[in-house]
Amino acid sequence: MTKHRALITGVTGQDGAYLSQLLLEKGYAVHGVVRRSASADVMDSRARWLGIADQIELHDANLTDITSLLRVFDQVQPTEIYNLAAQSFVKSSWQQPYLTGLVTGLGAANVLEALRISCPGARYYQASSSEMYGLVQDPIQNENTKFYPRSPYAAAKLYAHWLTINYRESFNIHGSCGILFNHESPLRGIEFVTRKITDGVARIRLGLAKTLPLGNLEAKRDWGHAKDYVKAMWLMLQQERPDDYVVATGRTTSVREFCHLAFSCVGLKADDFIEIDDRFLRPAEVDFLLGDASKAATQLGWTPETTLEQLVSEMVEADIERIERGARL
Ligand code: NAP
Ligand code: GDD
């Protein structure tokens, strides 16, 4: 058996794809949890985009079904478990609060219980979120900043976050939480604002759309590249002691400024195309996020490598190429 066996829940998502790529490069056997879908043809589209689909062993399970997790954990006997699965779209969490609580919150309880019963020595990563800071209580958020969740998603993430800390203290598991600020890439889901913008820019540039409808342009986020952020996840599990870390760039940018950057990549002016559409506003907003990742820098040796300008241009170029090729993702 290979020494390092990683099991990733949420392997079909953005971070799951980049984390798989990183772990394969490091010589891990990579296993992933996938929930059964009628759209099986697109299930591993991100891994295929990265050219690694045939190197990941997929297992049928669901975060809401602990028996399915136990079966997979028993079979794989992972040395590291990365719990990335979630209903991760904040806006949908008001439409589906129960489902969000079940998957994003209680799903983590199922994963932790399966770990405790089946492979208690495995190291555990919990995908916590800067969304937990919500109505921010400090101008720059670090590991000591108080949480103030502003969505059903954030409340569910907070439950999973504290449960991980509780299992660390109760059962001595090696469980770490990465409080990751927003991170994006060409593999970002199309519903999130950055990818919606870069896809919209590509469509307008190629003459396929005339406008880009958006909600709150004044919200500010600390945006980094997912490829950089999965390195921090791995580093957390290589530490002797489990702990919690903020992962961020230390730069905050408004949605409006992101639009300006993206449109300027193709020589266009954002103001000529953006339309405000109330359907994209939220019942409660997180106005401002800005992370201080100095603990991750000092203790993990982690710093971001990609600038926002590089991220935006990579995303715009990928969307233009994707549309020209007629590729799905
Ligand atoms: P994502 O692209 O939305 O991926 C979510 C993954 O969860 C998908 O693989 C999805 O599977 C899976 N999933 C959903 N419900 C499931 C269930 N009931 N059972 C099993 N799997 C299920 O998210 P991401 O951007 O990669 O983020 C990864 C994690 O980090 C998430 O937990 C997210 O909340 C958290 N996070 C993300 C960010 C960010 O900026 N990206 C920041 C902080 C925290 P399907 O493909 O079948 O839908
Ligand atoms: N999605 C979306 N669509 N957001 C819009 C739009 C729009 O048309 N117009 C403005 N926004 C604003 C949202 O109101 C929000 O303030 C901001 O853009 C970012 O929205 P998202 O890209 O949907 O991300 P998020 O910050 O709500 O959540 C992401 O980051 C969290 C970490 O802070 C997700 O990846 C979460 O899973 C993650 O935990």
What's the number of extended β-strand segments? Answer: 13
Q: How many H/I helical runs?
A: 11
- The residue ranges in which pLDDT falls below 50 over 5 or more consecutive positions are none
Report the structural category. Answer: alpha/beta
Output the CATH homologous superfamily of the largest domain: NAD(P)-binding Rossmann-like Domain
Q: If strands are numbered along the chain, what order do they take across the biggest sheet?
A: 3-2-1-4-5-6-11
- State the assembly state of the protein chains: single chain
Secondary-structure arrangement, i.e. CATH architecture of the largest domain: 3-Layer(aba) Sandwich
Major sheet summary line: 7 strands, parallel
Rg computed from alpha carbons, rounded to a whole number of angstroms: 19 Å
Q: What is the total number of structural domains?
A: 2
The CATH C-level name of the largest domain is Alpha Beta
Terminal-residue CA separation: 34 Å
Order of SSEs: EHEHEHEHHEHEEHEEEHEEHEHH
How much helicity do the residues have? 40-55%
Mean pLDDT figure: 97
CATH third-level topology of the largest domain: Rossmann fold
Residue share in β-strands = 15-25%
Report the bound ligands by name, code or SMILES. NADP nicotinamide-adenine-dinucleotide phosphate, guanosine-5'-diphosphate-alpha-D-mannose
Shape: globular
